[in-house]
What we know:
By secondary structure, the protein is an alpha/beta fold.
Amino acid sequence: MSTLREGGGRRGIGGLVGLPEWDRCAVMGVVNVTPDSFSDGGQWFDTELAVKHGLDLVASGADLVDVGGESTRPGAARVDEAEELRRVVPVVRELAAAGVVVSVDTMRATVAEQAVRAGAALVNDVSGGGADPAMVPMVAAAGVPFVVMHWRGQSIDMNNRAVYADVVGEVVAELTESLERAVAGGIEPDRIVLDPGLGFAKNADHDLELVAHLARLRGLGRPLLVAASRKRFLGRVLAGGAGSPPPARERDAATAAVSALAAREGAWAVRVHEVRASADAVRVAQAIEQAGRAAAERGAGVAGTAGAGGERAGDRGADGARTEQVRTAQAGAGGTCEANEANEVGGVGVANAEGAV
């Protein structure tokens, strides 16, 4: 379910100007129009296949679809601009024409601009505007929502930058700087989503720690996108101590677990490759939250009723005490009158007796 409105949203989720506002954590399906993505490279490289895949994702429960034409896996080299445009724009155009809410995944302002013209409603830049100085001004002029991800450099050598003394504190601080730059560049704050950048210049321990502290990231006051799908840290968790990580496509159940946790922590959306499991997960998380809220409200109502009942019982007790006091006073007064009457009768009797004698 979604309603189109500006701002607002339940605790933790937030709303974005220009996008539907879902009543739960949204699910963003991924369409990689690439030959070399880490999880499904080459499967949707053809435009027709990519469009069909996007429509299938929506049918499986995706609320919006993220279309990208450049792999950002660790070690990946950049693709040239003309090729990225060739891959992305036709897919965006056809999906948007079919009524799909489309996000474009790009670090280039020219690609983002043409995708927006083709119908994209959101720009998802893994560099947060850091790779292309023209990106923030373009997004500001277009007036579309913008995803600012935590980023320390290009994929070709980003693993070398995975050095932190306090990963949560440093990611929060660096995301704050990126957010401030985007706002200073003209993007309205209520059009900005933040993404902690799981897997980007981070090792598995860093990713797990960030997932464990999503509440601190939400503390930045903007909607949060969590993109854990099929990533290395999940493979490491599933491998255990000495095992080999399962292939990326075998990490969807683990991805759904993170989706449920993220939804429970108030994330605005989760970005996933396989939609159905995560679509189910966020709905279950919503149902659990609603049940807890309803129970809390019932508890508050019972406590209020009990308090009111206690007050009424106290009033009845006070009334009873006052009634008893009146009765006691009346009884005391009655006893005095009877004694006086007896005395008077006794006095007359004595007098009569004396007179008779």
